């Protein structure tokens, strides 16, 4: 049986749509999505559901060119909207028609479609572009590292503007097809599953698909000469790892660490619940940097992470982010503790399992090693400010806060929360306040003061509130 309900409101809305809109009803989308730390990040007025990037990269010249096709929906009546992008643009089409475009500032691309977009309308946006990512930087910051054999896009909080136009903020996640053609003998690595690899006329095209919502900064590209290993985890998840052929002395330790990805992801699944994606792995390009990044399903590791020998702890940290950061993403960058506090705490749990010190011992150590006048305690992990977004305190004091929570509510509720939260918020966004409310709901306790002490005070919590004695 087919029943149709006619709601007066819906009827009224459809009548309204029939009235031709005047130009005054359309306004430009905001040039930022409203992030408290990074006002220019992301944009207002539309939502992207899918990115299709079809690119060519020549390592010898650092020239990246091709087409980005974005599937978008207007969330307001739009006369104009912005994308975040740093390379030069040749042409923009909106729903097949040429659109006017202009650069504004260093990384805003203003697009004026031939016909304004109505709220709720879908718009396919095609951007044709070419440029050298190494020639773009913002106040000395670059997310692109050129290597002797290629280049890598991996940085936080921004990396997309170096290689594709986007709504560059974790609030607007989308699925991705990334297809990159490189000279034969060179590989292109990205997120998700390799759909195809085809060679002709001296060029090989690698086509990758990431089929779950993915933040723009977690979308990565690495071009270079890699050794690639493939396997499946005990749970049947496909693993693809890639190692630059040029890792020198670090090659052994890098492999001895990253090849443990399957073991680590299975262990983390026991703590955090089912792994949220359909592929996993890591890559180690021959970059000079020292950091690692939780690029979705395919973690970026700098070779220097392995300079002192194997470092499974960093593998644990970056894979923990697949739940805490990638599947459940921040609402705003001030919520960074939801990423780094939990990824750091997972390293303590791993240490405990490996017999290298319990989480409690590591918490006591961090508490003791920083005296009260150490500037470490002036950073508030719950709102560290953009200048301290990746300060040590966000990680270590952030993990201390979780040990304090564990001691307050007990292991049963604590581990129920560690597993329940990624399920509750899978593929979405959350704030620190959302997490506090969730922890209060699961534990039945009032936890505001505890989180205020550990996350929001610019001073060392008193010994009485230290994790060890709070038990
Ligand atoms: N989320 C990354 C990690 O903790 C941090 C990357 C920070 N970026 C940097 N250049 N240090 O693994
Ligand atoms: Zn991290």
UniProtKB/TrEMBL annotation:
Named cofactor requirement(s): Zn(2+)
GO biological process terms, semicolon-separated: proteolysis
Signal peptide: 1-23
Enzyme class, broadest EC rank: hydrolase
Pfam entry (one): Peptidase_M1_N
InterPro entries recorded: Aminopeptidase_N-like_N (IPR045357), Aminopeptidase_N-like_N_sf (IPR042097), Peptidase_M1 (IPR001930), Peptidase_M1_aminopeptidases (IPR050344), Peptidase_M1_dom (IPR014782), Peptidase_M4/M1_CTD_sf (IPR027268)
Family: Belongs to the peptidase M1 family.
Protein name in the entry: Aminopeptidase N
Organism field: Streptomyces liangshanensis
């Amino acid at each position: 049986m087919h029943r149709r309900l006619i709601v007066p409101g819906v009827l009224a809305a459809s009548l309204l749509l029939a009235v031709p809109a005047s130009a005054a009803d359309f306004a430009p989308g905001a040039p930022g999505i409203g992030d408290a730390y990074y006002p220019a990040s992301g944009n207002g007025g539309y939502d992207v559901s899918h990115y299709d990037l079809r690119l060519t990269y020549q390592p010898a010249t650092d020239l990246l060119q091709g087409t980005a096709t974005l599937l978008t929906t207007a969330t307001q009546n739009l006369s104009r909207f912005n994308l975040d992008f740093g390379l030069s643009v040749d042409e923009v089409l909106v729903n097949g028609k040429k659109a006017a475009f202009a650069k504004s500032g260093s990384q805003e691309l203003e697009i004026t479609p031939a016909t304004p977009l109505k709220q709720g309308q879908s718009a396919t946006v095609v951007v044709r572009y070419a440029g050298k990512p190494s020639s773009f930087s913002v106040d000395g910051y670059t997310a692109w590292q050129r290597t002797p054999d290629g280049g890598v896009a991996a940085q936080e909080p921004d990396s997309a503007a170096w290689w594709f136009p986007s709504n560059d903020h974790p609030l607007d996640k989308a699925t991705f097809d990334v297809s990159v053609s490189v000279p034969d003998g060179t590989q292109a690595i990205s997120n998700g599953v390799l759909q195809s690899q085809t060679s002709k006329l001296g060029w090989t095209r690698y086509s990758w698909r990431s089929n779950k919502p993915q933040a723009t900064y977690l979308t990565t590209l690495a071009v270079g000469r890699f050794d690639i290993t493939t396997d499946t985890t005990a749970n049947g998840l496909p693993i693809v790892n890639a190692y630059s052929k040029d890792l020198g002395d670090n090659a052994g330790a890098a492999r001895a660490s990253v090849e443990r990805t399957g073991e680590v992801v299975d262990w983390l699944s026991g703590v955090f619940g089912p792994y949220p994606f359909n592929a996993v792995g890591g890559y180690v390009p021959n970059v000079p940097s020292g950091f690692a990044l939780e690029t979705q399903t395919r973690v970026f590791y700098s070779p220097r992470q392995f300079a002192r020998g194997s470092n499974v702890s960093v593998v644990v940290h970056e894979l923990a982010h697949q739940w805490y950061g990638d599947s459940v993403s921040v609402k705003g960058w001030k919520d960074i503790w939801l990423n780094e506090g939990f990824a750091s705490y997972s390293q303590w749990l791993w240490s405990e399992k490996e017999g290298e010190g319990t989480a409690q011992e590591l918490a006591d150590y961090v508490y003791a090693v920083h005296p009260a006048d150490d500037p470490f305690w002036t950073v508030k992990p719950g709102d560290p400010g953009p200048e301290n977004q990746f300060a040590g305190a966000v990680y270590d004091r952030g993990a201390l806060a979780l040990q304090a929570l564990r001691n307050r509510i007990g292991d049963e509720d604590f581990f129920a929360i560690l597993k329940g939260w990624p399920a509750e918020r899978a593929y979405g966004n959350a704030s620190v306040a959302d997490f506090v409310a969730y922890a209060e709901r699961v534990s039945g306790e009032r936890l505001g003061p505890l989180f205020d002490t550990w996350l929001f005070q610019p001073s060392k919590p008193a010994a009485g509130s230290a994790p060890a004695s709070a038990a």
